[in-house]
Amino acid sequence: MTADILTIDTPSGTVRATAQPQGKDAVVYALTGALRGWVHVTGTHHPRHWDQFTALRVSLGSVNAMEAIAPAESLPRRRGSATGYTGGLIWLTDVDDPYQQTKMTSVESTAGNAPSPTTGETLALVMRACAEDVAHRNDLHRLLDASRERETPGLLRFLDWSMRKGEAEAASFERKAQAHRRDARTAVSSWWTAARLLTARPDPVLALVLMDYRGSLARRADYLPAYAEYAERAAREERDRAARIGTEISSLRAQQRPHGRTRRPASRQHPAVDPPLTAHIGNTPA
């Protein structure tokens, strides 16, 4: 049996990445050449749609960075260097997605330093190459289904908490809006009462009450309606967000049933959202 080997031309030199399936939900790549170490690729949910498992998470090192810390010896490092690097990216496998194909996460050394431009570009090219290779595997749909099974229980707990928090925030904003509206009506009513009294009997104190200054009735009558509108808008946004989360929760629960399976994305490259790699990538036999 031969292993799949990617040959990647980078600014640091040629990197060879040997694919090794790890269980049913991940592929790890052993790096040789200009880089030594490992790259881990697994399925995950779309970064904007929690219920859609159409993305790949690439992590520098031998494990999924969202679940564990990679052993230091597995972190990629340039040939002749002892400095390992952490980081990763999200690769969207759905060619119809209107957003960018990749989303980089922070890449830094184990000491917390940013890599040099050359090293940073090298690591990015290698991660993109590994992600693209997995995205074109015939068993991609099984890998994404496995990630759905792995992540759904935790996502449901998080989304349920997030929805309840959003509903509570919306209720709080609604109470604030009501209080601002009530206080604004009181300020307007009090101002007109003082104005009528001043008309009937001029008084310096009443004139002071009617003036516009910080904390005055006039100032409160002016800004409280705007505060109420802001609170009402925030409440609507929180309600809408909670409703969207509720829809995603229902979708995730439906996918837990036997018939719920991840759609297999098209494997053909889409020029609008999947720009070609700047480095040459090819498959060579072991």
Identify the notable features of this structure and list them briefly.
9-stranded antiparallel sheet, 4 helices, alpha+beta, two-stranded antiparallel ribbon, 20% strand, elongated, 286 residues, disordered C terminus
Structure notes:
Helices cover 44% and strands 20% of the residues. The protein is an alpha+beta fold. The strands form 2 sheets. Strands 1, 2, 3, 4, 5, 6, 8, 9 and 11 form a 9-stranded antiparallel β-sheet that branches. Strands 7-10 form a two-stranded antiparallel sheet. The longest helix has 61 residues, at 140-200. The N and C termini lie close together (9 Å).
Q: What fraction of the residues are assigned to beta strands by DSSP? A: 15-25%
Rounded mean pLDDT is 86
Bulk shape: elongated
Which spans have pLDDT < 50 for at least 5 consecutive residues? 264-286
Order of helices and strands: EEEEEEEEEEHHHHE
Structural class: alpha+beta
How far the N terminus sits from the C terminus, by CA atoms, comes to 9 Å
Helix content: 40-55%
Oligomer description: single chain
Strand runs, count: 11
Radius of gyration: 29 Å
- Main beta sheet strand tally, sense and closure: 9 strands, antiparallel
